[in-house]
Amino acid sequence: MPSFSVLGLVLGSFLGVGLVLVASSIPPREQSTKDRAHRPRRRGPLIVIQRLLEEAGHGNLDPLAFLALGVVGAVVIGGVVALFIPIPALSIVATGASVFLALGYVSRQKDARHQRLARAWPGVIDHVRSAIRSGSDVVTAITALPDSLPGEIVEPVEGFRQDVARGMATDTALAQLGQRLADPVGDRIVEVLRMAHEVGGTNLPSVLVELQRSVRSDIAVREDASAQQSWIRSAAALAVAAPWAVLLVIGTRSQTITAYQSTEGTMVLFVGALVSVIAYRMMKSIGALPKPRRWLV
Fold this sequence. Notes:
The chain is mainly α. It is 79% helix and 0% strand.
């Protein structure tokens, strides 16, 4: 690899680190749940990243800033790889893999958040049902939820209290609550409560009981299936990572560098990266469970 290319990667890496530090030093404009709920929705591809961040619990993070920081971080990693292993194709592969790893990490955070919420929803439904049976309305039942619930529920509920206190219409406040919760089960609960508030619901306690049973049944099925298929996901990650880890280990040898700097070696790396991505996606699809669809998006 020419020396000027290495120098360019090094300078780009340092520039990227500087941009990351500058961006991280700027305080957010407002971290309240009000800001998160009223922020305008993005359009185009950024909406996918915005939904991913919201469901992962990072609703205050701007998707464009997240994407920019991810690209900068990937360039830094690619520059570091190029410094220690001067194989251009390998540094490009490392740069691309870093972006996907960042998205995968956020996706795992989203799944972990959904699991925490799933364990809490039956208790939330029970609290709301008890309050309604005792004569409370929908607003009072929600605002009376205890603060001992997970923070992913307590914070949106606090935002709902603030919206109601400011005089916001109950239907609108419930819609904002659903956006803050950013969870499929939360959408179902919010929609049931919105309907009960709009048209009345003498059968609301029985509807909540059926919803609670459905949520518990879904949790049990998903946890059992996830435990049985976890080995597929682990095997997929190991199978993809192992050959690239070996390549990084032997990549410092001069014979390996010479071989992979050639046109044939470059093609082998690119084809190997493509095959790794396809195989990993296939294994993930085999071991994945159907994703529950959200209603309030």
